[in-house]
Amino acid sequence: MTDKLKPLREQIDAIDAQILALLNQRAKVAQEVGHVKAETNAPVFRPEREAQVLRGVADRNPGPMVATDVQTIFREIMSACRALEKRVTVAYLGPVGTFSEQAVYQQFGSAVEGLPCASIDEVFRATEAGTADFGVVPVENSSEGAINRTLDLMLGTTTLISGEVAIAVHHSLMTKTGNMDGVQVICAHSQALAQCQVWLNQNYPNIERRAVASNAEAARMAGDDASVAAIASEMAGTQYKLGVVKGHIQDDPHNRTRFAVIGHLQTLPSGKDHTSLVLAVPNKAGAVYQLLAPLAKHGVSMTRFESRPARIGTWEYYFYVDVDGHVNDAAVGKALAELKDQAAFFKVLGSYPVSLT
Ligand SMILES: C=C(O[C@@H]1C=C(C(=O)O)C=C[C@H]1O)C(=O)O
């Protein structure tokens, strides 16, 4: 057995030496890129370029490695290379252990400075003020729909959306002991309670449910008090030394949340992009139909349509629209120019590479 392993391990050692040399060769080139950018004050993080590199390695991957695993590795390589230019700071809805934090690593790799914030409002403030280079905010969940606070804050922010990232959201029921003995209350963020309500009604109909600021906060509370159970990610459970009573309790096994990356960067076209807009129309018959006609006319497909009350006491709405393509694409540019002419309110939130997942 060991005789057979020895030469194979020697091969792996030799390959590792080559990988290590190549990684550092790549890092030196990234440092040079950093010097060029510093001369022109250009932004360090280029989401469109990173998206192209990640799509490229998946397309060219000969196997047997799985394409998504190759992307995970290259995401980390780029993260480490980028950190040699500058370590970017990214604000997110904390505390440590939230799905928002997971989304930060999914987008930026692990060589970033995470800045946990107490609320979505604070993520916007920190990014607007430049305390953070970027912010990551939840936009919509596949089970529960839009994250209204984020949509409302998008209206007035000076930041732009520079990227999107979607992650699978798996909830676990966890306690200090790993069982439900003596548990009097199940705590989680209101979104997580909603995403697990059928399972909770079936399994623990008589235990009080309490909404708290975040799932990670629930996990922290459960770590302090054996009468509290938390619904959170297993990552948060590990953070606060919890035992899993039951994993994957979300009602939809394919539950996902999409996040927006906000910042001051106008992302360039990556070849596969989305553009997000907010529109309002005068309150009259056929107005929405007419408003969207320019999209059809220029062959631009709409990927999302969401409405929010304008909160001025009348039945008026803001419409949040995502379309395929980048503002610099000719067809999108023409459609948006016509939309703008008709709309009572018009704001481009940003163009950015379509999420890889
Ligand atoms: C090296 C660059 O800077 C960053 C690092 C990248 C990389 O390691 O491939 C890609 C884009 C940037 O976020 C670059 O802009 O090319």
TrEMBL record:
Name any one Pfam family assigned in the record. Answer: ACT
Tell whether Transcription regulation is among the UniProt keywords: no
Task: Note the Gene3D superfamilies from the entry.
Answer: 3.30.70.260, Chorismate mutase (1.20.59.10), Periplasmic binding protein-like II (3.40.190.10)
Tell me a GO cellular component. cytoplasm
- Give the site residues for Essential for prephenate dehydratase activity: 257
UniProt entry keywords in alphabetical sequence:
Amino-acid biosynthesis, Aromatic amino acid biosynthesis, Cytoplasm, Isomerase, Lyase, Multifunctional enzyme, Phenylalanine biosynthesis
| GO terms classed as biological process | chorismate metabolic process; L-phenylalanine biosynthetic process
Principal localisation: cytoplasm
What PROSITE patterns does the record tag this protein with?
ACT, CHORISMATE_MUT_2, PREPHENATE_DEHYDR_2, PREPHENATE_DEHYDR_3
UniProt domain Prephenate dehydratase: residue ranges? 89-264
Which InterPro entries has this protein been placed in?
ACT-like_dom_sf, ACT_dom, Chor_mutase/pphenate_deHydtase, Chorismate_II_sf, CM_dom_sf, CM_II_prokaryot, G/b/e-P-prot_chorismate_mutase, Preph_deHydtase
Q: In which pathway does it act?
A: Metabolic intermediate biosynthesis; prephenate biosynthesis; prephenate from chorismate: step 1/1; Amino-acid biosynthesis; L-phenylalanine biosynthesis; phenylpyruvate from prephenate: step 1/1
Which EC number(s) does the record attach to this protein?
4.2.1.51, 5.4.99.5
Domain (Chorismate mutase): residue spans on this chain: 1-89
Residues in ACT domain copies = 276-353
Q: Which reaction does it catalyse?
A: prephenate + H(+) = 3-phenylpyruvate + CO2 + H2O; chorismate = prephenate
For this protein, what is any one GO molecular function term?
chorismate mutase activity
Its localization reads: Cytoplasm
Keyword Ribosomal protein found: no
Q: Which PANTHER family match?
A: PREPHENATE DEHYDRATASE P PROTEIN (PTHR21022), PREPHENATE DEHYDRATASE-RELATED (PTHR21022:SF19)
Question: What is the documented function of this protein?
Answer: Catalyzes the Claisen rearrangement of chorismate to prephenate and the decarboxylation/dehydration of prephenate to phenylpyruvate.
Q: What is this protein called?
A: Bifunctional chorismate mutase/prephenate dehydratase
Which species does this protein come from? Answer: Pseudoduganella aquatica
Encoding gene (name): pheA
